[in-house]
């Protein structure tokens, strides 16, 4: 099985999520749900996780 850690945190989203990557084995984040050209881009939080996280990051997109 896969162990999942669920937490409710307060603070700036980008900084809070980046802090949560310390000691994590993997972070799964959602992509912003925009259609068209904007839908191909990632939001700033996903970008920050991909570039600065202390663990591997998977960004998933929901069905359009």
Automatic annotation (TrEMBL):
SUPFAM superfamilies: Adenine nucleotide alpha hydrolases-like (SSF52402). Gene3D superfamilies: HUPs. Pfam families: Usp. InterPro entries: Rossmann-like_a/b/a_fold, Universal_stress_UspA, UspA. Residues 9-61 form the UspA domain. Belongs to the universal stress protein A family. This is Universal stress protein. It comes from Streptomyces sp. SID7958.
């Amino acid at each position: 099985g896969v162990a999942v850690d669920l937490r409710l945190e307060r603070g700036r989203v980008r900084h809070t999520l980046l802090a949560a990557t310390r000691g994590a084995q993997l972070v799964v984040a959602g992509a912003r749900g925009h259609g068209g050209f904007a839908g191909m881009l990632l939001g700033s939080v996903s970008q920050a996780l991909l570039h600065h996280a202390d663990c591997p990051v998977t960004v998933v997109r929901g069905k359009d």
